[in-house]
Specification:
With about 190 residues, the protein is α+β, with helices and mostly antiparallel strands. Helix content is about 45%, strand content about 25%.
Length: about 190
């Protein structure tokens, strides 16, 4: 059950098997049905989740009430509302399952315990947060400085094969365009 998690963290740190067992024992497996909300705007985030199986969209509602997808989390990705988790403020993000999914969840309390008992885990999450910051920076630069055509091509590169698992509306929400405009881009690129 923890093979994908072990493979994921091994990209960042070397954690001996006995330490990994202690690490993994603090995660709870949660099965989530398609369209089920893991987190809603206004709630408080008390966890980080590792996607074992399935797909999630992490989004917010803009001032016009339209969904703006920040990212999709597929197998091997993490989900949370970091601002809410760290600063104990209400969530601005929503996390919804796009497919039936399985997530390994760790509470903030258990994560803090790991920081105190296994320093390499603090290094792991520091590196992951740095990678997340880089991804966010790239996402902002893409949204503000690139054409929709280029953003679509970046999406295809970043999420190979994911387009077949999503609706056209979900892809358009990620790109910040209408699904009609996405259809035009697809036709043009074909």
């Amino acid at each position: 059950m923890y093979n994908l998690l072990y493979k994921n963290i091994s990209r960042y740190i070397n954690l001996p098997e006995e330490n990994f067992k202690q690490f993994a024992d603090l995660f709870q497996l949660k099965k989530i049905k398609r369209k089920e909300m893991v987190l809603k705007e206004g709630e408080y985030c008390l966890f980080e989740g590792f996607v074992q199986e399935g797909c999630f969209k992490v989004y917010y509602l803009n001032e016009n009430g339209f969904e703006q997808t920040l990212y999709f989390a597929v197998e091997g990705w993490w989900i949370t509302d970091l601002d809410s988790l760290i600063n104990h403020v209400p969530c601005t993000l929503n996390i919804e399952a796009i497919e039936d999914s399985e997530v390994l969840m760790i509470s903030k309390k258990d994560k803090e315990y790991l920081y105190e008992t296994m320093p390499q885990v603090e290094k792991l999450f520091r590196i992951m947060n740095q990678q997340s910051s880089v991804a966010l920076q790239r996402r902002i630069l893409s949204l503000t400085g690139k054409t929709a055509d280029k953003r679509y091509l970046e999406f295809l590169e970043k999420y190979p094969g994911l387009e077949q698992r999503l609706t056209q509306q979900q892809v358009a929400s990620y790109l910040g365009i209408t699904h009609e405009f996405l259809s035009k881009i697809r036709r043009k690129l074909l």
